[in-house]
Amino acid sequence: MSSCDCLQQLMAIAEPALCSEPPEAPPHLLALAGETGAEALLRLLRMKNGFYAFARALHVFPTCAQQEGFDLIAWNETSLWRGDYGAAAEGFLFFAENLFGDQFALRDNRVWLFDPETGVAELFADTLAGWASRILQDPETVGFATALAWQQAYGDIPPGKRLFSKIPFVLGGQ
Fold first, then answer.
1. Closest Cα to residue 95, out of 50, 48, 161?
2. What does the alpha-carbon distance between residue 142 and residue 58 come to, in Å, rounded to a whole number?
3. Which structural domain, as residue segments, surrounds residue 75?
4. Residues forming a β-bridge with 105
5. 51 pairs with which residues across the strands?
């Protein structure tokens, strides 16, 4: 599966774009992703500027403001959530999240998965295409089965919302 194929396959199963405007992001924010990481992210957002996929288990932030939820620029402000993590969140461009609020981020051209419960980031893929490939091969990496069960029982997860355990997973929550 070529890199272009993975991103195209992800677009094919994604909901419509959250923003109809062409993607734009400030240079200081794109610099966090690395040159090839930023180029890949902008390419992805040109296909669909923000979207949901896998029964809304995967949420990719758009670059323009929305009525509900956050855009890529606001989501990466230190005055929002990431400031509480201090150095643990520095140097990342957070561009997407899974069903449980774990954050996908670009740093130095690679994709990382940041756990907001622990503040720990782990390498997820070497490229954005690798990120798409991994999710397509194993949709459970974004919580697809849980999102599908939720959707069948309660309807779509509302825009800008994620599912959280009453007891944090690191403390044994389910």
1. 50
2. 6
3. 3-171
4. 94, 112
5. 60
Average pLDDT of the chain to the nearest whole number: 89
d(CA 45, CA 61): 9
Structurally, how many domains does the chain consist of? 1
Predicted confidence band of residue 161 (pLDDT cuts 50, 70, 90): confident
What does DSSP say about strands 103-107 and 93-97: parallel, antiparallel, or unpaired? antiparallel
Cα–Cα distance for residue pair 109/29, rounded to 1 Å: 13
**119 with 112: CB under 8 angstroms?**
no
Q: What are phi and psi of 100, to 5 degrees?
A: -100, 10
- Altogether, the residues listed in the chain come to a count of 174
pLDDT: which is higher, 168 or 88: 88
pLDDT in tens, 114-140: 999 899 999 999 999 999 999 999 999
**Pairing label, strands 51-53, 110-115:** unpaired
Helix (H, G, I), strand (E, B) or coil at 157: coil
Residue 115 CA to its chain's centroid (Å): 12
